[in-house]
């Protein structure tokens, strides 16, 4: 499989190099040159497979030529063996034909574990083979950070730097990152917001002099391997609900547009999906695009669903690439304009195409809490605020009652006690492996929102805490 950049100028790479790349050299994101497509018969034949075996079948074409079948099977089995539920991603019924796909049974209790448990193992495999050390820089609004640290903490060849917005993640999320101690793990609290952190990661790819020759790797969903692993659970959910013989609808709590983009790819790979709903919080740039062709920067508003407090959605670029007939130069032009003006809209026919692909809704904090309370009253289930946004959007945007509706349950409610309690519901207890989280020692450095300061820090600590 070869991968090409959404901005049309970077060289095409194989999977191994894309895994180690992050952003393409022209500033674009990598996407497969040709998406694999499965027949309905082939997808149907996967019914009843354990999660890791399904994952092998869905992802095999993406890694072909870089990772052997035997190695990939072994890596996948180890990846999903660490999940706390035997089904890995169980479905829980909320209402008639309405289900939550629980993606929070991995070690850090959010959907990010599906990809980052795998990414850590893939990196380990490839770096050991190459005898190479890398530096990882990641930005997090709360969940990617802990999942990345958990996924990579045992990788001998990696130093990982995770930036989170100071005082803007929940206490549980922060502690899940800062209490993992190791001389290759570096938590940085940036005096800024998530977009500032994300921007610094991207800028570091553009100018890597501070790394003195060490390769920079991404763990955010700009890294193709993240998206690839997130495609699998759409197949998994559909197969349990009568797919592919029938269509399934999905509602996806959305921030960086990675998770729902994986659903869009699952549909393009042959899975019958009748509806994909983009569910945002008050930070609703994607909803404003889908509903009015206005992808315009706004102020970032802190919300009760902090992981989705994102102003600019990285993976939107991958959609723009498809909407523009995979013309990278046209995408580069559009994004140059966006960088200069903070505004972007597309030609009318392209926007009409986007509207056919996605429905959308923005849900504020009040409606989020009301939905947590509504679901708790009806079912006894406690939702986290991000999943609640998905449920609200599913209920308000649903087209066909006869089609099963699956809401992606992206995080465990225990990570967001503040929102749950605001909804009048008692927050659950931390699971056994995190029971003493609030007593553990924390290690974190607060830094100014300044690229040079961050790069100096990385340079001074990037070799197991010592200078590069
Ligand atoms: C709990 C939770 N839900 C939803 C999202 C949104 O996912 P995406 O950024 O892939 O759109 C995130 C973070 O991105 C998250 O951490
Ligand atoms: N919600 C994320 C933000 C980063 O998104 P990513 O999917 O691109 O890593 C988080 O919790 O950190």
UniProtKB/TrEMBL annotation:
The modification N6-(pyridoxal phosphate)lysine is found at residue 112. GO terms for biological process: threonine biosynthetic process. It catalyses: O-phospho-L-homoserine + H2O = L-threonine + phosphate. Its EC number is 4.2.3.1. It comes from the Bacteria. Its cofactor is pyridoxal 5'-phosphate. GO terms for molecular function: pyridoxal phosphate binding; threonine synthase activity. Residues 2-80 form the Threonine synthase N-terminal domain. Pathway: Amino-acid biosynthesis; L-threonine biosynthesis; L-threonine from L-aspartate: step 5/5. It holds the Pfam family Thr_synth_N. Keywords: Amino-acid biosynthesis, Lyase, Pyridoxal phosphate, Threonine biosynthesis. Residues 92-329 form the Tryptophan synthase beta chain-like PALP domain. Belongs to the threonine synthase family. PANTHER family: THREONINE SYNTHASE FAMILY MEMBER, THREONINE SYNTHASE-LIKE 2. This is Threonine synthase. It comes from Atopomonas hussainii.
